[in-house]
Amino acid sequence: MTKRTLIDKLAILADAAKYDASCASSGTKTKSSLGKEGLGSTEGMGICHAYAPDGRCISLLKVLLTNFCIFDCRYCVNRVSSNVERARFSVDEVVRLTLDFYKRNYIEGLFLSSGIIRSPDYTMEQLVEVARVLREEHHFRGYIHLKSIPEADPLLIQRAGELADRVSVNVELPKESSLAHFAPEKSQPDIRKAMAGLKLRIDDAKDAQTSRILTKAKAPVFAPGGQSTQMIIGADASTDSDILTTSTDLYSGYGLRRVYYSAFSPMQDASLDLPPIRPPLMREHRLYQADWLLRFYGFEKSEIDAATTDGMLDLDIDPKLAWALRHRESFPVDLNRAPRHLLLRIPGLGAKTVDRLIEARRMTALRLSDLAKLTNTARKAMPFIQTADYQPGGLLDTANLRARFAPPPEQLALAL
């Protein structure tokens, strides 16, 4: 058997890591290095491009420690029964790659996950050791995101949070029954327990930051970027409403910074009860949009449900527009008088645009031309607003208003 080079391993394990979508940096600050100059920073612009909630683009080395796995999750390409090319990094190899890529300004940090080798505890020990060597031996101060293994010893997960900027535990599938069916070696209660433990430690660290009696004492740091999770969509029969119900519960119960939605990718030799084709990528996009409405736009889960059909979001129009079309009695909204929570309901207006509108109307009565200067989606908002010089008139009540925004139907080619 030919011995693989480091580049060969990187090609295999970086490709295997692409199925994990929970790769983003936010909510963390540059670490001090105990008075020393350290390597790395979580700031600025930078082989995986991710975006923080503030829109900042970051680059991370996103790899698996190994794609060997003793589990047989049927939706996973790296499952033990899968016929894929395998590879494994040593701890020192991941450390060397991270430092070399950082010094060449290719990356700003590391996203590290792994298949389960030997046992959950052994695998988690290896992940933690990578972070420890980077932080304590090389004084690396760049961003580190470690994927935690819920079956591992809680003390190992705690150590991961002490070293990493963000930790995550994948919830895998929206329903506990689906996880039991497709991944019987995994337990939803174990996953939730691990999330709860992380939340407790994150909250304790935040409290210590704000309630120190001795101002010169150094407060403990634990996963300052919080925790996140990933949910695979399209592998089971869960509707979009089911998925958002689970997400809402995760946000409220475990203080997650982000739920990532990853469309199921079909694979060779897959189980017959898995779908043969992947769900449309637009479904993934609509779930992110609905997630944003729930977290930042004041929408309730029941309102998102009211804009679905049989629990599924409309793939042709975004969920805010779908809600507005079903609640036309709530419009038009006066841009000069309406409070912020009503302005956020207007299709085409994002939170930053709304804040600019509120600032601008303090100086002058807003006209339609003013809206056009603040956003390039004024046309989408026009049926739902009124300004000092504009009323939508009968436009809001037209029967074909949805068709104004939906893409035209695709023409089927005839096979001759």
Could you give the count of β-strands?
A: 9
Indicate the CATH topology of the largest domain.
Answer: TIM Barrel
Coarse shape: globular
Helical fraction equals 25-40%
Rounded average pLDDT: 87
CATH superfamily of the largest domain: Aldolase class I
Amount of beta strand: 5-15%
Feature tags:
416 residues, alpha/beta, TIM Barrel, DNA polymerase, domain 1, 2 domains, 7-stranded mixed sheet, 9 strands, globular, disordered C terminus
Detailed description of the structure:
The chain has 416 residues and is an alpha/beta fold. 38% of the residues lie in helices and 10% in strands. It has helices spanning 6-16, 91-103, 120-137, 154-163, 176-182, 188-210, 240-254, 281-296, 301-306, 319-326, 340-343, 351-360, 368-374, 378-381, 401-405; strands at 48-51, 57-64, 109-113, 143-147, 166-168, 227-233, 258-263, 333-334, 385-386. The strands form 2 sheets. It has a 7-stranded mixed β-sheet with strand order 1-2-3-4-5-6-7. Strands 8-9 form a two-stranded parallel ribbon. The N and C termini lie far apart (51 Å).
